[in-house]
């Protein structure tokens, strides 16, 4: 308490100084938040939205339960599989370097020849250098036909 008595009027913090300091601190915090949000976009950019096109793959009668077919749809190679009435379309492009992963019926796996990457029947990574699972495309059944939404590629028909 003796220290407060010894302060000169020039050393005391006025209400105005306190409010100015508070406003400056608040402004700096707001600038930091805005700058951080812009900087975050460079560290973690939004994924590009790739346009898709819905392609008629086959009739459902030609893909009975328990069967698989490798097809080229809109310039994309996919494996269509009917598992207990659920039709799925999985890309054969390896997520490591873009090599073609082949479906091996005997092993019930996708195998990439470039670095012996292995994916299970659902396209999930089993072993190898690939960073993520194989891409899966949306499938729609309309009027007994199987349609697959694949990435649109220029010049592919």
Give a quick precis of the structure.
The chain has helices at 2-6, 15-43; strands at 52-59, 68-73, 76-83, 86-91, 102-104, 109-112, 117-119, 125-127, 136-142, 145-151. The chain is of the alpha+beta class and 157 residues long.
Attribute tags:
157 residues; alpha+beta; Rieske Iron-sulfur Protein; six-stranded antiparallel β-sheet; 2 helices; 10 strands; elongated
Give the helices and strands, then pairings:
Elements: H1 2-6, H2 15-43, E1 52-59, E2 68-73, E3 76-83, E4 86-91, E5 102-104, E6 109-112, E7 117-119, E8 125-127, E9 136-142, E10 145-151
Antiparallel strand pairs: 1-10, 2-3, 3-4, 4-9, 5-6, 6-7, 7-8, 9-10
Protein model, in words:
With 157 residues, the chain is of the alpha+beta class. The protein has two domains: 2-43; 52-151, 3-layer Sandwich (Rieske Iron-sulfur Protein), CATH 2.102.10.10. The chain is 22% helix and 35% strand. The radius of gyration is 30 Å and the shape is elongated. The protein starts with a helix and ends in a 6-residue tail after the last strand.
Whole-number tally of structural domains: 2
What order do the helices and strands follow?
Answer: HHEEEEEEEEEE
Give the CATH level 1 class of the largest domain.
Mainly Beta
CATH architecture of the largest domain: 3-layer Sandwich
Strand order of the largest sheet: 1-10-9-4-3-2
């Amino acid at each position: 308490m003796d220290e407060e008595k010894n302060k000169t009027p020039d050393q005391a913090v006025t209400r105005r100084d306190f409010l100015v300091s508070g406003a400056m601190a608040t402004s700096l915090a707001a600038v930091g938040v805005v700058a951080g949000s812009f900087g975050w976009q460079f560290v973690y950019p939004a994924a590009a939205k790739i346009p898709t096109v819905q392609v008629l793959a086959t009739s459902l009668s030609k893909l009975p339960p328990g069967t698989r077919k490798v097809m080229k749809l809109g310039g994309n190679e996919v494996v269509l599989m009917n598992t207990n009435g659920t039709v799925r379309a999985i890309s054969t492009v390896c997520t490591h370097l873009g090599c073609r992963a082949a479906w091996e019926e005997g092993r019930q796996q996708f195998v990439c020849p470039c670095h012996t990457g292995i994916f299970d029947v659902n396209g999930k990574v089993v072993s190898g250098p690939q960073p993520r699972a194989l891409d899966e495309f949306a499938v729609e059944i309309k009027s007994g036909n199987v349609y697959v939404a694949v990435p649109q590629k220029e010049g592919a028909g």
